[in-house]
Design brief:
Blueprint (H helix, E strand, L loop, with lengths): L5 H7 L3 H22 L5 H16 L9 H27 L15 H14 L4 H12 L4 H8 L3 H20 L4
Length: 178
């Protein structure tokens, strides 16, 4: 999907078919991203839906400076973190599932899906702060300064989370059969 994708202009202009095509193309990527960021709980599906709503509503604001995919990744990430903050607040006020599996892309080979499921299983076993930093850096390709800005933490904190998270993933991966 390029920045000059005619489907984007058509979708923004109200063409339902173009919008459906864009949503069908973006949805598996968004669901996977949300699943990488959120532990395997029932909230992941709801968060993915909220992220897609945010993307569809925000389509007119896409300026075409980058790919629609990278823009939608950022929107989905922000929507996910916003949902996670709301859930944490709600749980704190109360004082007090079913896993959404990674979604294979229709063109993806089966071994890619299996590797994705293994990665999600390992990510489920590390703390959220490290998980978020790793996904933003290694899945979305965000720089440390961009992650620092998005998460609202110092650069060294991001670097530390990445270093410790990678170490934990390596240790976990070494202890499992592949």
């Amino acid at each position: 999907m390029t920045a000059a994708d005619p489907r984007l202009a058509a979708a923004v202009a109200g063409d339902r078919r173009a919008l459906e095509e864009l949503v069908a193309e973006i949805l598996p990527r968004v669901r996977n991203l949300v699943r990488y960021l959120v532990r395997g709980d029932a909230e992941a599906e709801d968060i993915a839906q909220e992220a897609m709503v945010a993307i569809v509503r925000g389509l007119p604001s896409h300026r075409g400076e980058g790919t629609l995919q990278s823009w939608s990744d950022r929107v989905a990430t922000r929507a996910t973190f916003g949902c996670l903050r709301r859930v944490r607040r709600a749980r704190a006020q109360l004082d007090g599932g079913a896993d959404l599996e990674a979604v294979p892309h229709p063109d993806a080979p089966p071994d890619e899906y299996i590797a994705s499921r293994r990665a999600v299983a390992l990510l489920d076993r590390i703390p959220d702060d490290q998980r978020h930093a790793l996904v933003l850096h290694h899945v979305l390709g965000m720089s440390v300064p961009d992650i620092s800005a998005d998460l609202g933490v110092p650069l060294e904190t991001v670097r530390s989370r990445l270093r410790i998270g990678i170490g934990k993933l390596r240790a976990l991966h070494g202890g499992e059969r592949c």
